[in-house]
Structures are given as structure tokens and as C-alpha cells.
Design brief:
The protein contains 15 helices and no strands. The protein has 287 residues and is mostly helical. It has one domain.
């Protein structure tokens, strides 16, 4: 399969997963467990791996400042169990999706979309090697097929973490640190510096040091913009990420990928149109 097909299929449905990091339903449920601010985010995403230490989160999440992770993770497993946190995350996702989908929750295409995405995610679970965050999420029980919106969300969450672990492998192979990866992301022009640096809590001096280190290697100019070499190497990382993410989509075939995109697009659009992806939150100061 052309890796571009896999990328397109993943990107089409990604809003269905990604909204859980922004919706108030998540913050409310984590808050009810005593987890506030970034503690809810780190704990909810890490919980499927077990009561892991801050260092494990730093390693698997990759591009957050270690001090932010250690502060947010302090005492979380004494405050709430991993099972309770994972349950709260699923409940939040379900409530947010029902709010966004409205009548689409009972629309005939939803069980079909969920079933195809589940097939892809189950195929991904046959490739656990070197994918610790994905493996943790893959160990969670599947929601009931009677709740296809939750099946779809869980499947897309697995596919996102599968791709994410492969992306980190490519970044490490390229010899990039977490903050250097963010500097290169900023060089693409896709997201403003404030969102990338601020949301991951990298101080100005450490960001500037990363720019300097990349400039010394010929990846960026002094102002952080790409050199031709840097643009080529960043593209290598993206191409390698695509190649490492092909397996689950190749398993279901191009016809099913096309069906997944076609039938899934209205559900992803409902997430976007409903304002569930509020990226302005990335520009707020870190709590």
C-alpha cells in the first residue's frame, strides 16, 4: 500500500480521537478524581501503561519539558487508580462524541465505520514491537459493539498511538531530541512557536539552545527557518513515519480505507464543526 493512503485515512478520522484532549467533559471527569490541569492529560494518556513513573511518561510522550511532566505526574497514582482514570477518559469521550454527533450517533453508517476502524486497530495490535504507549492502550478492553461511537473512538485512539510510537522511533533514528523535533515542526509553518513551545513548557533559553544545536548541524538557519538539508531530513522523518504506520491500513486494504474515509468524514466534520478541537487552548499558559 502507498503510505500516503494510510496517512490520508488516519488524518481523515483523527479529529474523532484528538478532541478528547480539548473537551470540557474530560477536564470535568479528571477533576472529579482530583486530577486538575495537565495532571489529567498526562495521567489519562499514560494510565493504560500502568502506574508508570514520570520518566516513562517523559520517554513515551517525547517532546514535553521533563519538569512539566514531573510536576504534573506528582502524586497522580496516589490520587486516582489507573483503572479509574482510563474509565473517566472513556466516559468523557463518549459524552463529547454524543454531543458532537447528535443524530449521527444513531446513523446507519456509524457501526460500519466503527467496525472497519476496529479491524485496522486489531491488525495494528499484531505489531507491538517497540511501541510501548500503543501497547498499553491496546491492552484496554474494547467498548461494546452496541456503542459504536466508543468503538470508533477507541480504534482511532489505538491507530493514533501506533503512528505516534513509530514517529518517535523515526525522530530518535534521526538523532533528534524532543525540543529539537518541535523546532523543526515550527520551521514547517504548520503551527506557531507559541503553541509548540508554550504547550510543552520549553523555556526560551532551552528553545534557543535547540535552534543553535540544529543550526550547527545544518538543519536550520539562525532564525530557525529550514535549510534545504533540514527540510529534506524532516521529510525523511515524515516519510519514515508514514512507512511505519502502514501495517494496520494495509491489512484492511485500499477499498476499506476508502470506505472508512468516505463514511467517516461526516463524523470527523461534526467534531470540527462542533468546536471540539479548540486549538486556542495550546496558547494558554501551562498550569
Amino acid at each position: 500500500m502507498d503510505p500516503v493512503v494510510a496517512r490520508k485515512t488516519w488524518r481523515t478520522l483523527e479529529p474523532i480521537h484528538g478532541m478528547v484532549y480539548f473537551v470540557p467533559e474530560a477536564q470535568q471527569r479528571y477533576g472529579a478524581l482530583g486530577l486538575h490541569g495537565r495532571s489529567g492529560y498526562f495521567a489519562s494518556r499514560a494510565a493504560p501503561m500502568g502506574a508508570v513513573t514520570s520518566d516513562v511518561v517523559i520517554a513515551t510522550f517525547f517532546n514535553f519539558h521533563p519538569a512539566l511532566v514531573r510536576s504534573a505526574m506528582q502524586g497522580v497514582w496516589e490520587t486516582a487508580t489507573t483503572a479509574a482514570v482510563s474509565a473517566a477518559r472513556l466516559e468523557a469521550a463518549g459524552a463529547a462524541l454524543q454531543r458532537a454527533f447528535g443524530d449521527l450517533t444513531n446513523a446507519p453508517p456509524l457501526p460500519t465505520v466503527a467496525a472497519i476502524a476496529k479491524r485496522a486497530a486489531l491488525a495494528a495490535a499484531e505489531h507491538l514491537d517497540g511501541r510501548p504507549l500503543f501497547a498499553g492502550h491496546a491492552s484496554l478492553p474494547w467498548p461494546s459493539d452496541e456503542k459504536p461511537h466508543l468503538v470508533l473512538w477507541h480504534a482511532q485512539s489505538l491507530l493514533r498511538e501506533f503512528r505516534g510510537d513509530g514517529h518517535i522511533a523515526a525522530l530518535v533514528a534521526e538523532g533528534l531530541s524532543g525540543v529539537e523535533a518541535l523546532v523543526l515542526h515550527h520551521a514547517t509553518g504548520e503551527l506557531p512557536k507559541a503553541a509548540l513551545q508554550g504547550s510543552r513548557a520549553w523555556p526560551d533559553d532551552e528553545w534557543a539552545a535547540a535552534v543553535g544545536a540544529l543550526a550547527s548541524r545544518g538543519y536550520v538557519n539562525a532564525d530557525g527557518s529550514f535549510t534545504d538539508h533540514g527540510r529534506q531530513r524532516r521529510q525523511w522523518v515524515e516519510d519514515r513515519t508514514d512507512a511505519l504506520a502502514v501495517a494496520p491500513y494495509s491489512a484492511i486494504g485500499e477499498a476499506s480505507c476508502k470506505e472508512l474515509r468516505t463514511l467517516g468524514r461526516p463524523f470527523a466534520k461534526a467534531i470540527i464543526d462542533g468546536g471540539l478541537l479548540d486549538f486556542s487552548a495550546l496558547l494558554k499558559p501551562v498550569e
